[in-house]
Amino acid sequence: MQDSLDQNLSSYRLKLKEYVEVSKPRIVIVLVITAITTLLAGSRLDNTPGWHVTAWELGFITLTGALASMGSSALNHYCDRDIDKMMYRTSSRPIPSGRLAPGKVLVYGLVLSVLSVALAWLTLNPVATGMIAVGIFFYVIVYTLWLKRYNPANIIVGGFAGSAASMAGWATATGSINLLGFLVGWLVFMWTPSHFWCLAIKTRDEYASARVPMLPVLVGNERTSVYIFTNTAILLPYSVMLYFFGLGLVYTVIAAVSGSLMLIYHYKLTKNPTPQFAWKAYKVTAPYLVVIFVGLALDALFYYKL
């Protein structure tokens, strides 16, 4: 009896682990941090330092944002199940490995996605709810189903899914998305190509075998590294110029330092566009988004302008 109970518990733990994997928890964490920090940044009143948010807003932007990211990630796993099994990096995922049935992942993704939008509608405001829905739409429909397999601009346009998370946070605080809220959200859009193209260089052969037109597959590693450096060279001044649209000195210093470090590393990538160095660049690029958005939140708390 006890052995049977232990086996059942072990089986449930394994299944739970598989559902956690299709939810892409690392992406969930990054997007939730993005939404929360933007909520805090958007809550600052005029030139007065401080966060002016309620536990209700903080709790439900976290919950609905997490559910939206988990649901859309699961749907991404479902839609990509055929190409995932062709690539070494993704062949061990729950669906291609046979550990989860595709239909169960589809239902799981749909339920969480619908639940996130419905819950946001009941607890947040219409603009925030709309941005959560837009984020799901862009990641699942625009990126995964439409662009990923057919257009090298896939990751560029698909990056707006991350921007939507930021804009949802801003709208939760303000009830709308003004110019500054849009420009802050656009940071995610501009960061995404540099980040993902580094990974695409590392896994170029795998994408080629699956016939996915990621940029390195079409133009090679050297030209892609130049695009990465160019994109970051645009991102750096863009991030700093937000000072002139209302952000303070704390954010600006963090943006300038972190962006400069990333630019230096991507310059080095142009001199050594190998899969090994691209992987290092990918790991350097990954923390940038969290750092700069935490900078946004700290900027609101310790707001200061020259």
Overview of this protein structure:
The protein is mainly α and 306 residues long. The protein has 13 helices and no strands. The longest helix has 27 residues, at 215-241. The chain is globular.
Short description:
With 306 residues, the chain is mostly helical. The chain has helices at 2-22, 25-42, 55-79, 81-84, 102-123, 126-147, 154-158, 160-174, 179-202, 204-209, 215-241, 249-271, 275-301. The N and C termini lie far apart (71 Å).
Q: How are the secondary structure elements laid out?
A:
Elements: H1 2-22, H2 25-42, H3 55-79, H4 81-84, H5 102-123, H6 126-147, H7 154-158, H8 160-174, H9 179-202, H10 204-209, H11 215-241, H12 249-271, H13 275-301
Helix pairs in contact: 2-3, 2-8, 2-13, 3-5, 3-6, 5-6, 6-8, 8-9, 9-11, 9-13, 11-12, 12-13
Q: CATH architecture, please?
A: Orthogonal Bundle
- Helical stretch tally: 13
Radius of gyration: 20 Å
Mean pLDDT: 94
Structural domain tally: 1
> Strand count, sense and closure of the main sheet?
none
CATH class equals Mainly Alpha
Structural class: mainly alpha
Helix percentage: over 70%
Low-confidence stretches: none
Let me know the number of strands: 0
CATH structural fold name = Tetracycline Repressor, domain 2
Strand content: under 5%
List keywords for this structure.
Tetracycline Repressor, domain 2; mainly alpha; 13 helices
